[in-house]
Design brief:
This protein has about 150 residues and is mainly α. The protein contains 9 helices and no strands.
């Protein structure tokens, strides 16, 4: 594990956990580090918890990773589902990934379209990607005024 320089106090997960560790074949080490963080803090925030799924998948525990991520209080949110869908797609399970994604969320559209194409559902993908999304009106700047005093 990388150590901070003398006098420096690194916050957050180690480089192994932050980068997933799987690229270096160190997924088990990354999981052990996350377990130690959880034990020390007594809880595990979603930002740290979401690092578990790719590490568990790298260890061949994909189904356990998905169940674990879904069991977290924030695991059912749209961003969490997008991350799980990416993991499933990378594991060669595009139909499971498509089942998780919401066609009404713009964030999911960009992942969902290519997955539908991969599954041979070209027309559905084209329709989804061509559907215009409503644009929110621009918000006025906060704290700006052209009246004196400046």
């Amino acid at each position: 594990m990388a150590r901070a320089a003398p006098g420096c106090h690194r916050k957050g997960p180690s480089p192994v956990a932050r980068t997933g560790g799987a690229a270096e074949g160190r997924a088990e080490e990354g999981l052990a580090h996350l377990d130690a963080l959880k034990a020390r803090r007594g809880r595990e925030e979603w930002e740290i918890h979401r690092l578990r799924a790719p590490l568990m998948a790298a260890c061949g525990r994909l189904d356990e990773a998905i169940a674990d991520a879904k069991s977290h209080p924030q695991g059912g949110g749209p961003y969490a589902l997008e991350g799980l869908a990416r993991l499933l797609a990378e594991a060669g399970r595009p139909e499971d990934a498509v089942a998780l994604l919401d066609t009404d969320r713009l964030e999911h559209t960009w992942l969902l379209g290519p997955l539908l194409v991969e599954l041979g559902r070209i027309e559905e993908a084209m329709s989804l990607l061509r559907t215009p999304r409503p644009q929110a009106p621009p918000q006025p700047p906060i704290g700006y005024s052209d009246c004196p005093p400046f």
